[in-house]
Task: inverse folding
């Protein structure tokens, strides 16, 4: 799989990961890592934030959409 952002810019770079939101292949230069809080509990709402977080990989577009 190739990096989609690089391909748009005419480069041929191997992807090292995939955006968890849109599925776009990404090289290490275009990956945005974000640690997401984990919550424990069930319906109707999570009741307790866990001490550990979950790493996620996002593309630049999804990262900007989530963080403005």
Result:
């Amino acid at each position: 799989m190739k990096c989609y952002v690089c391909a748009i810019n005419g480069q041929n770079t191997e992807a090292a990961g995939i955006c968890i939101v849109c599925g776009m292949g990404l090289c290490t230069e275009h990956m945005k890592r974000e640690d997401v809080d984990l919550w424990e509990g069930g319906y109707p709402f999570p009741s307790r934030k866990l001490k550990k977080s979950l790493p996620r990989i996002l593309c630049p577009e999804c990262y900007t959409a989530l963080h403005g």
User: Anything to note?
Assistant: The chain has two helices and four strands.
